[in-house]
Every structure is written in C-alpha cells, then in structure tokens.
Specification:
By secondary structure, this protein is mainly beta. It has one helix at about 15-20, and strands spanning about 1-5, 35-40, 45-50, 50-60, 60-70.
Length: about 80
C-alpha cells in the first residue's frame, strides 16, 4: 500500500509521482493499492498507466482516491 499526502497547494507536483508507477518496470506489485489524498475540487484522472481508480471518498474539502494495479494491463 502506498499513501500519497502531498501539500494541497502542490497539485501540479502530483504528476511526477504517478509517472514512477505507471510505466514499466514500475515498482508496484500485483495487488498493490495506492491511496492519494487531495482537495475535493482537484480532479485526479481515473487511470494512470496500469493504475485504475476503484473508489473516490469525499468528505468536507478533502478527498481520497483509491487506485489498484490492474492486472493484465500494459506494463504489468
């Protein structure tokens, strides 16, 4: 499990974090889970390479996006 909790004002800096995991060889094993905390108004993508969002939990101004490694996707 990987938990990302960047400063809310650093939304643009999220992209380099995703790039580490979305292309081969990647560092996430099958079955890995990535949870990213972000502002509710900040729209993260539904997919980053072989990571697919499986859940979005919103409360107040915050949100948690849950991503799972999609087996059988390119790069896995």
């Amino acid at each position: 499990m990987v938990y990302l909790d960047p400063p809310y004002d650093a939304a643009r800096s999220m992209r380099p974090r995703w790039e580490r995991w979305e292309r081969p060889p990647g560092i996430l094993a099958a079955g890995a889970l990535v949870i990213a905390e972000h502002r509710r108004k900040q729209n993260l993508e539904d997919r980053y390479g072989n990571l697919k969002r499986t859940r979005l939990l919103e409360q107040g101004d915050a949100a948690l996006s849950f991503y799972a490694v999609e087996t059988g996707a390119a790069g896995t």
